[in-house]
Amino acid sequence: MSLLLATLAIGFVFAVLTLGVFLSFRVYRIPDITADGSFPLGAAVTARLLKEGWDPWSATAAAIAAGILAGMITGSIHVRFKINAILSGILVMTALYSVNLRVMGASNLPIDASRTVFAPLESLSGRIFGESVQLFGRTVPSVDLGMFLGTAFAAVLVGVALTWFLHTELGSAMRATGDNPRMVRALATSTDRMIIIGLAASNALIACAGSLFAQMQSFADAQMGIGVIVLGLASVILGQTLVGPVRSIGLAVAGAVMGALLFRLLVAIAIRLGLDANDLKLVTAVVVLVAIVGPTWLAARRPRARKEAARAAA
Amino acid sequence: MLRLESLEKTFNPGTENEVRALQQVSLDFPKGSFTVVIGTNGSGKSTLQGAISGALDLDGGRITIDGVDVTRWPEHRRARLVGRVFQDPFAGTAPDLTVAENLALAEKRGRPRTLAPLLRGARRGAWRELLGRIGLGLEHRLDDPIGLLSGGQRQSITLLMATLTEPSVLLLDEHTAALDPRSAELVIALTRRLVEGCRSTTIMVTHSMRQAATLGDRLIAMHRGGVYLDVAGRDKATFSERELHGLFAQMRRDDRFDDEAVALARSQYR
Ligand SMILES: Nc1ncnc2c1ncn2[C@@H]1O[C@H](COP(=O)(O)OP(=O)(O)OP(=O)(O)O)[C@@H](O)[C@H]1O
Ligand SMILES: [Mg+2]
Questions:
Q1: Is residue A75 part of a domain?
Q2: What is the CATH number of the domain that holds B156?
Q3: What's the gap in Å between B81 CA and the centre of ligand 1?
Q4: φ, ψ dihedrals at A165, nearest 5°
Q5: Residue B263, Cβ density class (10 Å: 0-12 exposed, 13-18 middle, ≥19 buried)
Q6: Which 8-state DSSP code applies to residue B117?
Q7: Which of A208, A169, A45, A29 is nearest to B107 (CA)?
Q8: What is the pTM of this model?
């Protein structure tokens, strides 16, 4: 039970990450690999500032600001110099690796668990529930419950905020930019600016997730960004499969959150069943590939679809 | 008032694929005028529209709208003053957004995109009435994603969107060419009504001689990046659909001759 709560707590933090990837991938159709750099950037900035004596909230806010900056740089490289979005992301991700090492001054920086945004939640939970709680007939340390509730609140808050944002004038113009950039320019809005703002917001969420993850694990590590974008994509795609092809943005956002949780659970189960943690990234990449290619491949193999395709070609 | 002075555009200069798409084009369009542009394929009609909308960089010349020099304005900034409808009926709307969201984005053309909810205070009633007048049963579809609608329906809405804020200039580039005949009829009827009801200086490109004969108060024929014929008012009214077909055939023949012969043939139409 405690393991389940901890797994879900990580899942909720990854949901914040997933919502960032949702913004770049679903809204702009850009798989923005800056994520692999901005996630550890959020962690590094937070760890460093906590070490300097900042309070956890300010350190988390600074991590978000750093993510905004990273996204703006990727976006600016992409639109100003007309460099392919993925290449722009690769450049910034690579640069951020060095930046993160500089920020931390080492490849790994510990965080004092009693001085994180989760600490007050955990002690509050302890005061309310006592040392441990009975949950579905099992005993759970109240600390884990506090962490679970805190991260769940964060994920829901970010999900609601993102849904609201995508319905504003700015957010709608951003969706239209992903849909039909020519139309947006014809309606007197700079698509360049929309893309820069969008990638900034996306990386803000990703850096925020990195910051929360580091505070949860009590350390930041230069390597912790590897494969983050693929993990985010896996969750986004899983969520898309869960809720189906929906029109409602709120549902799509909820799907992304559920996708992140489900993905985390599947990973935990797989490892329990004996999957070597070292093989995890390989498995994740294969899962993403299958999830992207699978549906079209299956559709093309269905006899009726093939007949229709043949008729269309004729 | 739209003024074009010595517009010049050459594609692939200095190569064997060099095309002088605009050759010293100078034209004045009075406020609220409605000009129809015809010309053979590749004569420079879309290039001219691209130059006005800013989608294209000019090699030379000057463009002023209502006295403001906009030559160096980027496309999105110029779009505050210029409404556009493209040939592709799907190019003017965002398919995943609803009809209402598309209209709302168009209604706030030129204003900063803020953090206010897009559809707060939306003029649903007015929009429903505008949509109802198109006559395609669109008044009940405000909350459908626009991607579900047909090309003709989407092109009609694009036309509404382009005129909603009454921009100084309205550019229509073969906006009925990709539609079936009935939809094209409807969109042309709507064009006539909207253009006559607004003060936008309108330039419409078409390959339909019928449209050219029956619409607008001025007719410009383009040929090889230049103006071949420019008639307005009563002179334009005298051109029948058949005469325009004759003019068009002449221009097509001219395509095969050099510039001198063209100048000669052209003098016959003066
Ligand atoms: N981006 C481009 N690169 C190279 N050449 C171009 C480009 N755009 C247009 N041209 C050339 O410029 C000339 C004018 O093209 P334009 O599109 O303005 O013609 P048009 O009058 O709109 O023709 P149509 O009736 O076929 O739409 C053509 O010869 C065309 O091949
Ligand atoms: Mg054209």
A1: yes
A2: 3.40.50.300
A3: 24
A4: -60, -40
A5: exposed
A6: B
A7: A169
A8: 0.90
Angle (CA) A5 A7 A10, round 5°: 110
User: Is residue B64 assigned to a domain?
Assistant: yes
Per the structure, the complete domain to which residue A158 belongs is given by 2-277
DSSP type of residue B57? -
Interface of B with A (CB under 8 A): 53, 55, 74-77, 79-80, 83-84, 86, 91-97, 101-102, 104-106, 108-110, 113-119, 145, 161-162
User: Would A148 be classed as within a structural domain?
Assistant: yes
Q: Is B226 in the pocket of ligand 1 (CB under 6 A)?
A: no
End-to-end CA distance of chain B: 26
CA distances from A106 to A52, A98, A101 (A): 15, 11, 6
Nearest to A22 by CA among A223, A251, A272: A251
- Asked whether residue B263 is domain-assigned, the answer is no
By residue count, chain A amounts to 314
User: Which burial class, exposed, middle or buried, applies to B234 when counting CB atoms under 10 A from its CB (0-12, 13-18, 19+)?
Assistant: exposed
Render pLDDT for B56-108 as a digit per residue (tens, 0 to 9). Answer: 999 999 999 999 999 999 999 999 999 999 999 999 999 999 999 999 999 99
Using a 10 angstrom Cβ sphere, with 0-12 exposed, 13-18 middle and 19 or more buried, the burial of residue A303 is exposed
User: What is the Cα A268 distance to its own chain's centre?
Assistant: 18
Cβ–ligand 1 contact at B45 (below 6 Å): yes
Q: What angle do CA A292, A177, A250 make, to 5 degrees?
A: 65
| pLDDT tens string B152-196 | 999 999 999 999 999 999 999 999 999 999 999 999 999 999 999
ipTM of the shown complex: 0.89
Residue A43 neighbours by CB distance under 10 Å:
31
Query: Where are the extended beta strands (E) located within chain A?
Result: 108-110, 132-135, 138-141, 219-221
CA distance A15 to A265: 12
**Furthest CA-CA distance within chain B:** 61
Number of separate domains in chain B: 1
Instruction: Say whether residue A176 is in contact with chain B using an 8 A CB cutoff.
Output: yes
